[in-house]
User: Fold this.
Amino acid sequence: MTEHIAIVGGGTGGTVLANTLAEKLGTELDTGAVRITLFNDGPDHVYKPVWLYVAFGQREPADGRRPLREVVDDRVDIRQDYVLDVDHGRRELELQTVVDPVAYDKLVVATGAKLAPEQVPGLAEGAHHFYGEDGAQALRDELLTMEGGHVVLSVVGTPHMCPAAPLEFTFMLDDWLRERDRRDEFEITYTYPIMRVHGNEQIAAWAEPRLEARNVAVETMFNAEAVDPDAGAITAMEGTTLDYDLLVAIPPHTGSDFVESAGLGDGGWVDVDRHTLEATGFEDSYAIGDAAQTGVPKAGSAAHYQANVVAQRLASEVRDRPATAVYDGKTLCFIETGMDDATFVEFDYETPPSPGEPTRALHWSKLAYNESYWLTARGLL
Assistant:
């Protein structure tokens, strides 16, 4: 009997998991004892960190997009479809384009996160962002034609993908304007919805004096509740209103509708054991990456490490051995601190991040990682 492993979502977590499983279960795939299917609602694999650089004209959207077939092991079946629901009792997936459900034995949810600007009135119409291809290109065009004024970077929704990105954008914008001798023509304000500039206490303490040194105004405890595009104003539920000439927002995020309909968790986020990554209350089901409620940032490195853990666990289960691999919360992040400098943090459930002094070498290390990403997704590095 063939054991079927179904992976829903072809982002970083799903792709790394599929490739790692193909490597670990090569013998079982060759004999037909196992088959692996990766379900994705589009034909491409997208490397989202590229979009930050698109906004500053340093990358093109195509640099972050490859056909999924090019980055996934040939022994893995790829099925382009949208998974609508799960029948946990029958272990079947309901798909959008076919009537007959698809049976599975092991399920991994890697459906990621998506933007939900509609949650804040006026946000979609009045704000730019760099969390998508179209948004990053529109922001780039706006920055290139803007002749000065007040730029507001507002973190509207948390949790969101890549928690360091709002700080990175702010530091890069400051540097980008200084390189063009135009910084004096712009005011920059950074807003965050709690009483510090970042969700992580250590990163907030590191970033706050650097924002001050760059003459970036800071508004904490700013929970945006409405944007007036005609007036150029964003208002927080705390009563503060900021006028802007350019609003760059981190929109609210949600998970996949499929997670909610399948009863795996609220808001599209899957409730999991943060060590085993097993979906709470459901046998033979895991979640990884942005979709998993582990408490660590929604970062590609976390998805990568989680994929390796689940691959080890699934390989053990297929071979009727105890699954002992666990995730320790390991996350790595480069943080751009300008156009030519960056720092680096590494942390886990027990050890908090400790950002160091930015260096040019770390900036180039981040760019080198971006270039080599396609090899890491393939499992070749």
About this structure: Residues 271 and 291 are 9 Å apart (CA to CA). The two ends are 33 Å apart (CA to CA).
